[in-house]
């Protein structure tokens, strides 16, 4: 700001000087033309009279006739140039301002050379006043700019120091800490909001990790305890009971291994590490295969399984993974809807839905069931890894499909939209 204002003042100063010089040249040129015309039209005596009567406030005129000087000054400086060239020279007077600066030049007329000049010290005083005012304004601007810059930088540094202090708290494990957001909504507030969103996601992920850890401990504690008891009892078992006991231990081990295998598979699918064998798939055909595969299971549980087909739709997907995800949903409906329930697989265009009239899932728990190793309490008596719906969501996400859980009144309706 100081440089800009200084440049503007310098430009104004230069413009003022040029304008004053231009006006002075015009004034002297007009007087030169006037006296040259008078010398051509008047006789010597009349010309002398005009020179004597010249107003010194307009111009200082000096003419040397045959005997003496006539005009406003008592002398003509040596080496005065011819107008439009001009030169400044000092003049001493008897008034309060004893020294005046005069600028002018000589004009050749029929009656000889005439000095035409005018005062320029008043213009100099005006320029000096402007210079002093400009320097004062520049200094005030510089002081104000430095003061405002200091205050502005202190405000920025204060917020940065605060952000740094809060970041150190987060680094120490206080993940509930958030950066403050002011009413200004400036760039710092935008940064703070983005940072807070990152912290929210981080806190959610940490909570999910803790939840997964708790669920692993809960789900694997029982089979591992059974394994320990079974191994401790093996030496005391009769020989004829050893094969059966070993089979039970092997089953428990298979359950533990299945849980870890499912977790690894889920991670590979979510991270895109497992390549998809894409091919055109008919949703008609997939729905029919689902109904055929699950029909026996539903009949064994005393349930009815119906298929409703609408307009067919073709998607590009991995046949094995997509069938695995949809069958998992149908299997859940058979497991948890209860004996005598009615299950309907419906397909129309790009939507497949699986509905039952069982107890359903409370609305507040519908998002939780897609998390890893989450099993709602009523389902604890059913054997499983708690990763089925997480796997379903990951597979459908890789196929650009959306899954939604809705109330079937009564029961649950799962809707998949490709």
From TrEMBL:
The lineage of its organism: Bacteria, Pseudomonadati, Pseudomonadota, Gammaproteobacteria, Alteromonadales. The chain crosses the membrane at residues 133-152. It comes from Shewanella youngdeokensis. PANTHER family: HISTIDINE KINASE, SENSOR HISTIDINE KINASE YKOH. It catalyses: ATP + protein L-histidine = ADP + protein N-phospho-L-histidine. Its EC number is 2.7.13.3. Signal peptide: none annotated. It is found in: Membrane. The keyword Protease does not apply. One of its GO terms (molecular function) is kinase activity. This is histidine kinase. Residues 215-418 form the Histidine kinase domain. It is an enzyme of class 2 (transferase). PROSITE patterns: HAMP, HIS_KIN. InterPro entries: HAMP_dom, HATPase_C_sf, HATPase_dom, His_kinase_dom, HisK_dim/P_dom, HisK_dim/P_sf, Sig_transdc_His_kin-like_C, TCS_sensor_his_kinase. Its main location: membrane.
């Amino acid at each position: 700001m100081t440089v800009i204002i200084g440049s503007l003042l310098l430009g104004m100063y230069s413009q003022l000087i040029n304008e004053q010089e231009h006006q002075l040249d015009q004034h002297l040129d007009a007087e030169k033309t006037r006296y040259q015309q008078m010398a051509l039209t008047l006789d010597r005596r009349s010309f002398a009279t005009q020179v004597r009567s010249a107003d010194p406030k307009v111009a200082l005129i000096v003419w040397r006739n045959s005997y003496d000087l006539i005009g406003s000054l008592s002398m003509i400086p040596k080496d005065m140039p011819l107008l439009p060239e001009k030169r400044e020279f000092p003049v001493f007077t008897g008034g309060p301002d004893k020294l005046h600066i005069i600028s002018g030049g000589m004009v050749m007329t029929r009656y000889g050379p005439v000095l035409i000049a005018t005062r320029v010290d008043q213009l100099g005083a005006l320029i000096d006043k402007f210079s002093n005012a400009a320097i004062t304004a520049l200094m005030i601007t510089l002081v104000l700019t430095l003061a405002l810059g200091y205050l502005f930088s202190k405000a920025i540094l204060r917020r940065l120091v605060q952000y740094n202090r809060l970041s150190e708290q987060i680094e120490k494990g206080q993940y509930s800490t958030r950066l403050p957001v002011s009413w200004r909504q400036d760039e710092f507030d935008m940064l703070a909001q983005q940072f807070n969103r990152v912290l929210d996601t981080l806190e959610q992920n940490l909570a999910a990790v803790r939840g997964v850890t708790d669920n692993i401990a809960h789900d694997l504690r029982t089979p591992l305890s059974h394994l320990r008891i079974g191994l401790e009892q093996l030496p005391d078992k009769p020989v004829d009971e050893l094969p059966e006991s070993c089979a039970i231990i092997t089953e428990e081990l298979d359950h533990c291994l299945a849980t870890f295998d499912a977790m690894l598979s889920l991670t590979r699918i979510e991270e895109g590490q497992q390549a998809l064998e894409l091919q055109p798939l008919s949703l008609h055909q997939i729905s029919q295969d689902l109904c055929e595969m699950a029909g026996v299971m539903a009949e064994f549980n005393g349930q009815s399984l119906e298929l409703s087909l609408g307009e067919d739709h073709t998607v590009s997907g991995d046949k094995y993974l997509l069938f695995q995800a949809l069958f998992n949903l149908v299997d859940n409906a058979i497991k948890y809807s209860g004996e005598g329930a009615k299950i309907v697989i419906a397909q129309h265009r790009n939507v497949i839905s699986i509905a039952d009239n069982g107890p359903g899932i409370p609305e507040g728990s519908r998002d939780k069931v897609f998390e890893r190793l989450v099993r709602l309490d009523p389902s604890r008596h059913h054997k499983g890894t708690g990763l089925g719906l997480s796997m379903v969501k990951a597979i459908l996400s890789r196929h650009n499909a959306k899954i939604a859980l809705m109330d079937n009144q009564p029961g649950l309706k799962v809707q998949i939209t490709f």
